[in-house]
Automatic annotation (TrEMBL):
Matches recorded under PANTHER family: HEAT SHOCK PROTEIN 90 FAMILY MEMBER
Gene that specifies this protein: htpG
Name of this protein: Chaperone protein HtpG
Keyword flag Ubl conjugation: no
Family note: Belongs to the heat shock protein 90 family.
Record-linked Pfam families: HATPase_c_3, HSP90
Coiled coil: none
Gene Ontology molecular function terms on file: ATP binding; ATP hydrolysis activity; ATP-dependent protein folding chaperone; unfolded protein binding
UniProt source species: Parvicella tangerina
Residue intervals of the Histidine kinase/HSP90-like ATPase domain: 68-221
InterPro entries linked to this entry: HATPase_C_sf (IPR036890), HATPase_dom (IPR003594), HSP90_C (IPR037196), Hsp90_fam (IPR001404), Hsp90_N (IPR020575), Ribosomal_Su5_D2-typ_SF (IPR020568)
Keywords: ATP-binding, Chaperone, Cytoplasm, Nucleotide-binding, Stress response
Binding site for ATP: 75, 79, 120, 125, 140-141, 211, 384
């Protein structure tokens, strides 16, 4: 029987809930007790050991321990790296005094023999160590070693649970271990098992220190006998492991050793077969910022995301208290695109890739960033496939939040002009952060910008001061005018500028939500320039009298209503300046904003998305054209003038299309004639 060895880092019941349920179903008491007998046993405080039948454990490990069978290669390579790191530590402490250069892990595929071998030249194992680390499930040799040498500058260990080796049985019908310890006089041994509780172990001849794990691949896992598949897995999980990993060979071109030159005077290149090393053992995030140039950071970004546009800038994370955290976060050029950017931050633990879904460790808005986070203190489930709840996760998340805000604020203070040049690319990210995290909002108030239609940038306080004199209404409320498109609202913006008003550009996909947030925080109101007439958007004490009486307006109203779709347009008369347009089309700020929020998600107005578009058709009762329409005796001509005025308003709002646009053009030509 293989004994389940209980350790401080994992009892077998800490595995996935599924495993617990299966094991629990197999436990039984050999001699059932009566209630009285049970009470006596409890009073006596009897203690004992729960025995678990290994014939039930192996199928559970194979089926439930790891969510994806490809993980087996990550686990075996990680164990091999640990074996190499242990040897490095022993060399540092003087317990191993031989030369340890050329430490390497090699993955060997033999398609004909249907085997995969993971070979290392690390610390190796004695027969007793095989008995201890292999024959006792959930006993972590890496954990034990790290604990023993924790005060002696031990190299980082990957393994923590003592279960990684058993992932081999997910894809193998038989597994062999051939190993020779670094210790003087050690004998090489071979361990073999077919995945049942039975194993065999014998002495063998092996001349080189280290361990070979030989997997005889099962019939249902032959996909892993393809070179491309193994290369894909190694590149995904092992790309930055600290020990060199070889997988086969590759061809490259090198300079001819003879020095022979071509017709251009350059040394000729010859084809050469070299070892295929799949990993970068010293990634940029493990180096200090002082040792890296901007070019180094860009090169590392291209290593992570080949053939992509260079990022705007980066943040280098390096924390050793109260938790360990390293990493580099890059700001991509977001523009107004949010969705395609997600799941680009890669999470590592001691340089082993874990996942690119880091929603539980960074605030949601930080998922728009790219880069790497590496921390041995991030709690992982037993299969190291995803995060588990832990206080460290929140601490790390808060630290990253603060670090990002501090970086942005420093950039703003150091070179505001450069920061403004990047604003269009990072605006969505900052708005997303301010909407989703109040702490980030508070930190961002110092550097968050507003841009107007003249491409001028302002902090919140600067902008409030700029518009205070002209855009404070009669109720002492500051009104910020904005547009989603300077081109679409060009005429309305010109009109606002002529009145001494400033207009902001709010064109991000988060604009509606962001505006609502700012209204509450800054105690201002926002109004899009097409939400109403200017006199209504920024109400002043003065009122302009109407040249048309109420009776005349009542006579005109059916004429205008007869030329629009009454289900879509509401006709209303307003007393505006003669210089204002004769007809304007506006849309309720509240209704439009709610529909936009609903389209993006949120706003609490789920029914808004299904409501039809509604507009106000505002007739300027003081414009000469309106008086002319009223006085026109020829009904056909009156109708044409009315329709022309309405179509001009629709045209300026981008609402005139198709057949109606064609009729407008033809009518305009007739009026010109």
């Amino acid at each position: 029987m293989i004994v389940v060895h209980q350790t401080s880092d994992l009892s077998f019941f800490q595995m996935e809930k599924t495993i617990f349920c299966h094991i629990g179903s197999k436990l039984s008491v050999a001699h059932p007790l009566t209630i009285t007998e049970s009470e006596q046993k409890i009073k006596a405080m009897q203690q004992g050991t729960i025995n678990i039948q290994t014939e039930n454990i192996f199928p559970i490990i194979k089926k439930f321990l790891y969510s994806d069978t490809e993980i087996f290669l990550r686990e075996l390579v990680s164990n091999a790296v640990d074996a190499s790191q242990k040897l490095r530590t022993l060399s540092k402490t003087g317990e191993f005094n031989q030369e340890i250069k050329d430490l390497r892990v090699e993955v060997i595929l033999d398609k004909d023999a249907k085997t995969i071998t993971v070979r290392d030249n690390g610390i190796g194992m004695t027969a007793d160590e095989v008995e201890k680390y292999i024959n006792q499930i959930a006993f972590s040799g890496a954990k034990e070693f790290a604990e023993k040498y924790k005060d002696k500058d031990a190299n980082a260990m990957i393994g923590a649970f003592g279960l990684g080796f058993y992932s081999a049985f997910m894809v193998s019908e038989k597994v062999r271990i051939q190993t020779l310890s670094y210790q003087d006089g050690a004998k090489a041994v071979e361990w073999e098992s077919d995945g049942s509780p039975q194993f065999s172990m014998k002495e063998i001849e092996k001349n080189e220190r280290g361990t070979d794990i030989i997997l005889h691949i099962a019939e249902d896992s032959t996909e892993f006998l393809e070179e491309a598949r193994l290369n894909e897995i190694l590149s995904k999980y092992c790309k930055f492991l600290p020990i060199e990993i070889k997988f086969g060979t590759r061809k490259t071109f090198v300079e001819d050793p003879s020095g022979e030159k071509d017709e251009n005077g350059n040394v000729k290149k010859i084809e050469k077969e070299i070892d295929n090393i799949i990993n970068n053992t010293s990634p940029a995030w493990n180096k200090t910022p002082a040792d890296l140039t901007e070019e180094d950071y860009k090169n590392f970004y291209n290593e992570l995301y080949p053939f992509t546009e260079d990022p705007l800038f980066h943040i280098h994370l390096n924390v050793d208290y109260p938790f360990n955290l390293t990493g580099i976060l890059y700001f991509p050029r977001l523009k107004n695109n949010m969705e395609v950017q997600k799941n680009k931050i890669q999470l590592y633990s001691n340089q082993v890739f874990i996942t690119d879904n880091v929603e539980n460790i960074v605030p949601d808005f930080l998922n728009l960033l790219h880069g790497v986070i590496d921390s041995p203190d991030i709690p992982l489930n037993v299969s190291r496939s995803y995060l588990q709840a832990d206080s460290n996760v929140k601490k790390i998340s808060n630290h990253i939040n603060k670090k990002v805000a501090d970086k942005l604020n420093q950039m703003f203070k150091d070179d505001r002009e450069d920061f403004q040049s990047k604003w269009d690319d990072i605006e969505v990210f900052i708005q997303y952060g301010m909407l989703s995290d109040d702490k980030f909002y508070d930190r961002s108030e110092k550097f968050a910008l507003l841009k107007n239609t003249k491409d001028e940038y302002f902090t919140f306080e600067e902008y409030k001061e700029k518009i205070k004199a002209a855009q404070t209404d009669k109720n002492d409320k500051l009104v910020c005018l904005y547009t989603h498109s300077a081109d679409a609202h060009h005429a309305l913006i010109e009109n606002a500028n002529d009145r001494g008003y400033d207009v902001l550009v709010m064109d991000s996909p988060l604009a509606s939500h962001y505006i609502q947030k700012l209204e509450g925080k800054l105690n201002v109101s926002f109004a899009r320039v097409d939400a109403d007439t200017l006199d209504k958007l920024i109400q002043k004490d003065e009122e302009i009298p109407s040249k048309l009486s109420e009776k005349e307006q009542e006579n005109l109203k059916p004429i205008f209503e007869g030329n629009v779709n009454k289900e879509k347009y509401v006709v209303q008369f307003e007393s505006l300046s003669e210089t204002e347009k004769p007809v304007q089309i506006t849309q309720s700020e509240f209704m439009r904003r709610m529909k936009e929020q609903q389209a993006l998600g949120g706003g609490g107005m789920h029914m808004m998305g299904s409501l039809p578009e509604m507009y106000n058709l505002v007739v300027n009762s003081n414009h000469p054209l309106i008086s002319k329409i009223l006085g026109e005796k020829n009904e056909e001509k009156q109708k044409d003038l009315t329709k022309q005025a309405i179509d001009l308003a629709m045209l300026s709002n981008g609402l005139l299309q198709g057949e109606e646009l064609t009729k407008f053009i033809n009518r305009s030509l007739e009026l010109i004639d």
